[in-house]
Design brief:
Largest sheet: 8 strands, parallel, barrel
Oligomer: single chain
CATH superfamily of the largest domain: Aldolase class I
CATH architecture of the largest domain: Alpha-Beta Barrel
Number of domains: 3
Radius of gyration: 29 Å
Strand order of the largest sheet: 1-2-3-4-5-6-7-8
Strand content: 15-25%
């Protein structure tokens, strides 16, 4: 049991939880929320913010409990090393999460060492460890540097009978005992009634009230199997909120595709914390995505968080590289197509006024607007993209390029930037020598030697040779090409390999995207039966597409000047 001093400490922790939500306890009135939402692109909506939020006691801000390193790592096929988790933890802390659930200390020595490393870093976020409602698990959290404990215990009849083989009273006692044990050590304690959405409401409220009495500082309401829908989840959270006085947290799974919607419904019902993962990682179909939830709260509700939204894309990409689970192109917020426009009507509208076809600025989440050319592209889009590249073409020239772009699109082609540059150069009359012309490429590889490549090429008129090693033949060849070209700072940002035909002698298509030291990106493309040679040729193609906006502008001016002299 707690002493008077420990109880006082618990009250202090409760107060800190409430204050750190920056207004959770003192909810904003409807007028404040409506004003914030209007500033976030709600103004002029068919259903006004004032009407949509009527009767809701929305908070001014909510806490973000990130479980990427725990629930996210439970994504099938994902296994992170301790070093990867450590680096991701630092990035998530920099992003601004309030609670960082770093893992499950009872599971392995590596997990426990991770918690000890993080405890020495002085992170801004609370470092949370997950624990079952049993002393060995709790000790693993308490003894290894965590400063926040998350206890979970199933409360649905299905789980109690078939998994736990415990009675209601046994579950109730275990929950209370575990919370009291954590609180006796002076740490904040969040309690999750696992499978809450399939638990008898009477028993669920009994459990939450009991752990609240034991000193729990946060009550989490998980939709463990993702069976709920927003209206039902709203009513559940609202009822728990009315039955208790402890801050409420929500945790939604995406089995029905409504994890983010359920999380938002939970906030509408009074939750002051959201449990989320980067890129929506998690068991089965995943969890509510941190990036989607935070952006929706800010833009649709005017509810703030401590997340630095301009870093969302970079952290998402870091998580994707570590987990090897990449968001689909059409993923909200961080997807490659989130701010990409192709259809002529949309491009024309977004060029006239960005909000015509974008709900918020791409820069606010670290993205950039992209115009993708294809058969649906219109004249305005082509001329805009050419202008951005430095090609000041006439309307007639832009129309001719547009016609060629549509022809390529009808053939099923995605037009790369180097192809557009080629079309523009031909249209304007620019003639350029290739920066790099490949000569001999020699590669040695095997199961017991370091892959090594030698590349001979003519670079800006001078013959050069360079050698390099790599993790494989393609990597070695690309490293040698970077060396021989003099573009050592060039980074290979994207590498895509597709087989065009079947069989071991299949023709492959390689597309690369290169980024230079100034952050400019350019693409290269090649087709061939030899994967290594196609990769080298695609890289060389990208390096030849190196001209900047200013280079192109000067080349156009020179071509126009030459044409004028000829006509005289």
């Amino acid at each position: 049991m707690e002493t008077g001093n420990e109880q006082k400490n618990g009250d202090t922790i409760m107060k800190e939880n409430e204050e750190s939500a920056a207004g959770v306890a003192d909810a904003a009135d409807v007028g404040d929320v409506a004003a914030a939402a209007m500033a976030s692109n709600i103004a002029g909506a068919a259903v006004s913010a004032q009407t949509a939020f009527e009767g809701l006691q929305l908070p001014k801000s909510v806490l973000v409990f990130d479980t990427t390193l725990r629930d996210g790592e439970q994504t099938p096929g994902v296994n992170l090393t301790a070093d990867q988790k450590f680096e991701l933890a630092l990035a998530l802390d920099d992003l601004g999460v309030d609670v960082l659930e770093a893992g499950f200390p009872a599971s392995s020595d590596g997990e426990r060492e991770l918690f000890r490393r993080l405890s020495r870093e002085g992170l801004n976020a609370k470092v949370c460890g997950l624990s079952r409602a049993c002393k060995p698990d709790l000790d693993a959290v308490l003894d290894n540097g965590a400063n926040y404990v998350h206890i979970f215990l199933a409360t649905s009849e299905l789980h109690m009978k078939h998994k736990l083989k415990m009675t209601r009273q046994q579950v109730l006692d275990a929950a209370v005992d575990s919370v009291e044990y954590v609180r006796s050590h002076g740490l904040p304690c969040e309690f999750s009634a696992e499978d809450a959405t399939r638990t008898d409401m009477g028993f669920l409220k009994q459990v939450y009230c009991a752990v609240e009495g034991a000193g729990a500082t946060m009550l989490n309401v998980p939709d463990t199997v993702g069976v709920s829908v927003p209206r039902a989840y709203y009513l559940l959270v609202k009822e728990i909120k009315e039955a208790t006085r402890t801050p409420i947290s929500v945790h939604a799974h995406n089995d029905l595709g409504v994890a983010v919607a359920n999380t938002l419904a939970g906030v509408e019902a009074g939750a002051s914390q959201v449990q989320v993962t980067m890129n929506g990682l998690g068991e089965r179909s995943g969890n509510a995505a941190l990036e989607d939830t935070v952006v929706a709260l800010a833009n649709a509700y005017g509810v703030g968080t401590n997340i630095k939204k301009e870093h969302l894309l970079s952290v998402s990409q870091m998580v994707a590289r570590a987990t090897r689970v990449h968001p689909p192109r059409n993923k909200p917020v961080v997807g490659e197509n989130s701010f990409a426009h192709s259809a002529g009507i949309h491009v024309h509208g977004v060029l006239a006024h960005a909000l015509a076809y974008e709900p918020y600025s791409p820069e606010t989440v670290g993205q950039k607007r992209r115009i993708i050319l294809g058969k649906l592209t219109g004249f305005a889009a082509v001329k805009n993209v050419l202008s951005q590249m430095g090609f000041d073409v006439t309307d007639e020239q832009a129309k001719q390029v547009t016609a060629k772009v549509k022809e390529m699109g009808d053939a099923g082609r995605r037009i790369q930037d180097f192809e557009l540059v080629g079309l523009a150069e031909k249209m304007v009359g620019i003639q350029r020598k290739a920066h790099i012309a490949l000569g001999q490429v020699l590669i040695t590889t095997g199961n017991s030697i370091m892959p090594t490549a030698s590349v001979k090429a003519v670079v800006d008129g001078k013959e050069r040779t360079a050698c390099a090693t790599g993790v494989g033949p393609v990597d070695a060849a690309l490293n040698a090409l970077s060396e021989v070209s003099g573009e050592r700072s060039a980074k290979l940002k994207e590498y895509k390999l597709e087989a065009i035909s079947g069989g071991s002698d299949a023709v492959c298509e390689v597309t690369v995207t290169i980024e230079d030291a100034e952050g400019r990106r350019r693409s290269g493309f090649a087709i061939g039966q030899d994967i290594v040679m196609a990769s080298v040729e695609a890289m060389a193609s990208g390096m030849n597409n190196r001209y900047s906006h200013e280079d192109n502008r000067k080349a156009v001016a020179m071509a126009k000047s030459n044409a004028a002299r000829v006509s005289e």
